[in-house]
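target protein:
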Amino acid sequence: MLKIGKVAVVPNLILAPISGVTDTYFRRLVKRLGGCGLLYSEMISAEGLCRQHSKTLSYLKFASEEKPLTIQLYGCDPIRMAEAALMVEERGADIVDINMGCPTPKVVRQGSGAALMRELDRVEKIIVQVKEKISIPLTVKMRAGWSQDTLNYLEVARRAAESGADAICFHPRTRSQRLSGSAEWSLIRELREAVSVPVIGSGDIATPYDALRMEAETGCQGLMIGRAAIKNPWLFRQIGDLRQGKKIYLPSLEERKKFMLDYLSLAERGEEDPRVAAAKGKRVVIYLSRRLPQTTLFRRRLGAARSIHQLKEIVEEFFYQLLHGDSSSGKLPYQGISSEGIPPT
């Protein structure tokens, strides 16, 4: 069983933080599908929290059904990171995570995210000061290094653990790679053998078979899934099925439609500004449609929508045509939808 400090993560499958997607509405729906043991928030600016920016504070919103929940912070000032971590604990989060892996130029230019992989003394100061402020567990999410020429993941992980980190989330790509190339899973095993705290592996888990293979090859205690899970939120359940020797669950088109509509309804009720709700809904529905056929016109229509009501109508019409065909164009009902890497039954 994976334990991060005193927090038990059962099962040991974790939804990764994805900016613009893994908000409270998406997390609730993933949890309801089953199979996910720990949810991560989108990354949140420590500076924005300390300055009480309303938009930044809104990222702290969560429902009790999401617990256990990790709130991820990014920043580079040890004092501000510690202040923000205390705010996170006071809001009721179960775990605080420090982002040391985001490769986005906007974040890196601030000295945050993957830029911290080049600032080991600063990393130690951040971890020590955060640990002094909070009583809940602290994790770090990191990469293999800044570039292939500066692979320092073992040293970073050791110093993080010695400074007080309760677990290491490790994506074995460099900042220079971003999401290109392949995740070097062999590095996860090396890191797992180098530190005494739990190691959570991340990177290139696209199917249930990938998940079991990463566990077997690396010995990591937890698995974190991001991009594949936002295209196929049923992936956590499917991994559980494979572990238990069950037939792997394949969601129907109706279930995929329901997930989209449920997200839109949650966003509509939860956001004060209808424009914010529509923007969130549009982004998430587009992600969720990536495994579906005949989406070119669908996405174009989504892009032009201006309200949740319009988005719901577009989703309903799209799935009606998939399920029943379109007599005006001669398209037949679509057959054989399955999750990537899983043969249709």
